[in-house]
Structure formats: structure tokens, C-alpha cells
Known about the structure:
Layout: H1 2-22, H2 27-61, H3 68-143, H4 147-160, H5 163-339, E1 345-347, E2 365-367, E3 374-379, E4 382-387, E5 390-392, H6 398-413, H7 430-434, H8 443-457, E6 466-468, E7 471-474, E8 477-480, E9 489-490, E10 493-494, E11 502-503, E12 510-512, H9 515-527, H10 530-534
Parallel strand pairs: 1-5
Antiparallel strand pairs: 2-3, 3-4, 6-12, 7-8, 8-9, 10-11
The structure holds adenosine-5'-diphosphate and magnesium ion.
Amino acid sequence: QVETLKAKLLEQTQEISRLRSELGGTDAEKHRDLLAAENERLRQEMKVCEGELRELKQQQQAPCRACAHLQENIELQEQLSQLQQELEETRAKLAELDLEVQQKTNRLAEVELRLKDSLAERAEEEERLSRRLRDSQETIASLRSQPQHIKYIIKTVEVESAKAKQALCESQSRNQYLQEQVGMQRQVLKEMEQQLQSSQKTAAQLRAQIMMYEAELERAHGQMLEEMQAMEEEKDRAIEEAFSRAQVEMKAVHENLAGVRTNLLTLQPALRTLTHDYNSLKRQVRDFPLLLQEALRSARAEISQAIEEVHSTNRELLRKYRRELQLRKKCHNELVRLKGNIRVFGRVRPITKEDGEGPEAANAVTFDADDDAILHLLHKGKQVSFELDKVFPPQASQEEVFEEVQALVTSCIDGYNVCIFAYGQTGAGKTYTMEGTASNPGINQRALQLLFSEVRGKAADWDYAISVSAAEIYNEALRDLLGKEPQEKLEIKLCPDGSGQLYVPGLTEFRVQSVEDINKVFEFGHVNRVTECTNLNEHSSRSH
Ligand code: ADP
Ligand code: MG
């Protein structure tokens, strides 16, 4: 029995735990917990009973005559049966409770199902109601234009369904809101009416003003009309006056005309004499060609005679000119004899910024007031004087310097060899003197201008060929600046004709017709200069 009870108890405990896991903390669970506690207590009791039973069994096996135990045994058996009954009862109660739990679980599931259903139903209902509400709102909106009918329609809706009552309620609240709105609108309307009244008042004021202006305008119009009238009268008066004045003038013109007529009568005899004169002139003109031919013939004879005379004079002049040339050549020779074949001029340039300041930069050159060929130099505290052909002071202009060498250009045209060159240390003014600046050219440009102008002057009688060549002596090597290969080194040789002149074989020569031509050639030559090529120093004294 105890064994089966144990098994059942275990089963029930398991069942209880299963139920507990299935259900949450409900009333049934609390009840079950209580039952479990009871169960536990019973088990304890049963254990005690078992112990007692075992003792009793042992006592039964032993011979017991006193039979005090028998009594006790009977009592215990009674107790046991009582306990068994109690156990039975408890089991029945447990089964009952189990059933109850089962039922409750079933009911719970049912209730859940129903809840779900009712939730779906409610959603459906809500949906339906909202649809209905929308419909009702639309109806109300359409009916709002006829507010007197709203009540009737609301009543109809009421009758239609109990559920619509709710919608009606909402509609009523909406109606309320709309009425409020209408009230508000009415307020606005009232305000606007007030505004309208005030603007009407202003309009009336403005109208009165306009009336006033119109009256003024009327008045001005009347005034203007009066003024116009007055002006019209004045105009008439002026026209009358002008008319009378014109009549007077007309009379005077008429009188003048009469005078002119008498004049015309006196002019007629004059006209007659003029016609007479004209006729005689006409006759003279007719005879004029004959006279002219005669005159032309005599003039031609005179002119040819004059030309003959000029011709002979010309020939005479040419002869004189040739003699003059000879003379000039002689003069040149004389000049060379007197002044020397080589002339040396000194030119002192003005002090420039580059000369610096202080005692190191003191001026060491002075001039002789009486002799323009003397130059004094202060050298180591002592004055040294030099005598040259001429000394140009700093203030001497390019023209003045050129004037001194100008005669050489003429000599050149006459067939002499001429050389002009500048010598001095770097910065002394060689380039300035020879080339000068574009605005103030030096000897080169001026000499070439003169050369070409002289040649042009003699072009009628003489043919001149001018050619240029450019060479550079740099570091004792001679190079052709106009050649195709400027790097090639040339040589200076003595002319083989025994004239004692020097020449450079292979030096390039260009025929030129004007100063511009020469300048172009020089530009080309400049590019080939060593100082240009190496770009070392534009004014290098190693390049000549
Ligand atoms: P060089 O050719 O002898 O080295 P430059 O002719 O270049 O010297 O002259 C040096 C500087 O002095 C240049 O700036 C030049 O313009 C100036 N100069 C030379 N001579 C005169 C002069 N007579 N008047 C004004 N400036 C001069
Ligand atoms: Mg120079």
C-alpha cells in the first residue's frame, strides 16, 4: 500500500509541477501549493507510521504473552486504518482539485479564444463605425449649407440605428464646433461691416472733397475762358495794328518801286553802250588765235635760245665743279699735312652716379680757359698737362663732337680712307660717344646720315656704292660678325697690290642703300658679338 501511495504521490507531484509550468501564478496554483505542502506533511507522517509498523512486525514475530502489545497493536491498526482513510480522502480531494484545475485551464483557453473573437469583432465594429462616421460627416458637410435641415437629419440618423447614436454624438459636437465657427465668422463679418461703414464714411468725405475740387475746377475753367477771351481781343487788336503798319510799309515800298523804275529808265542808255562794247570785244576774241600763234612762235625761239645758254653755263659749271673737287682733294691733303694724319680728341664725360662720392671720387680733371687743346690732370698730388687736338668738356654736346669729325665724312666720299675710333677705360663714354642713345645719337649715326645725304645730293652726276662689313676683335681673335659662321677665326693681311693697305680675306660685305639698311646689318652683327653670346658684360673692353 505504502509503495503504491508513494508512486501515486510522485505522479501527483509531477502533475502539479506540470500544471505549474502550464499555468501562471493563479488562485488554482496557490491552492495547489497548499496541497503540495499538505502532501509533504502527510509523507512525513507516513514515514513515522512505517517506522512504527516495522517495530510492530518485529514485536509480532517475537512470542508475546503479555499481550499488552496486542492491545497496543490493535490501537495502532485502528490508527493505521484511520490514516489510510484519511489518505484516501486526501487523494479524492486531490483528484477533485486536479479536475478543477483542468476545468479552469479549459475555461481560460475558452475565455482567451472568446477574447480574441471579441477583439476582432471590436476592430470590425470600430472600422464600421468610423466608416459610418465619415459618411455622417460628409452628409453633415453637405447639409451644413442648409442648417435648418440638420436637426431633422440627425433625428433620422438616430432612428436608423443605436450605433449611429455615437456617430450622431460626434456629429453634434462637430455641429457645435461649426456653430462656434459660424459665430466667429459672424464676429468677423460684424467687424468687416464696421470697416465698411468707416470706409463708406471716408468715401462720403472724399466725394465731398471731389465736389469741392469740381467747383474749383469750374471756377478755374470760367477764369480761363475769360482770359482766353481777353487774349483773343488782344490778338485781334495786334492783328489790326500789324495790318495798319503793313499798309504803311507797303506804301513806302511802292514809293521805292517808283524810284527804281525811274532809275531803270536812266540805265537803259548805259546798257546800250555796254552791248556795243561787248560786240567789239567779241570781234577781238575772234582775232586772238592768230595773234597768239604769232606770240608763241617768238616765245619758242626765245626759250630755245635761253636753253642753249643754260646748257653752255652748265657745262661751264661742271667743269668748275670738277676743278673744285680737285681743289678739295688738294685741300684735304693740305689739311692732313697741317693737322696730321692722326687726330686725337679728348672727351671728358659728366660725373655720373656710378662714380660714387667722397675723396676717392674727387674730380682730377681741369680745363684750360684759354686753350681748348689742353687738359690738366691731378696725378698723385701733382698737376700733369696733356696737349691734344681738341678737348671736349663734360657739357659738350653730341653735335659739337660730331662737327669736329664731320669733315672726315666728306673726305671719305672724295675717296680717302677714314677711320674713327674711341679708346678709353670701361665707363669712360666710348659707346655713348660712338653710338649714343636713340634720342641723342652719336658719331656713327650722324656720320651715316651725312654720308647718305651727301651721296643723294650727288646722285645726278655720280654713282656711289656703299657696303658694310662688321668684325670683332675679341681676346686677340678676329671674327666676322655678319658671316654665316661667326665662330670662324679670320686673319688681317696686307694688300698684295703694294698699296700698304690692310684687308681681311673672307670678310662678309653687305651692299646698303640707306641708314636703315646699315642699322639692320648692325643689329644682326650685335647678336653675334661674343659679349652678346656669353651675356657676360655688355660693355666689355675685351670686345672691340
Ligand atoms: P664705355 O662704352 O666707355 O664703357 P659708356 O659709353 O657706356 O662707357 O658710358 C658709361 C656711362 O656714362 C653711360 O651710362 C653713359 O650714358 C654715360 N655717359 C658717357 N658719356 C656721357 C656724356 N658725354 N654725357 C652724358 N652721359 C655720358
Ligand atoms: Mg662700351
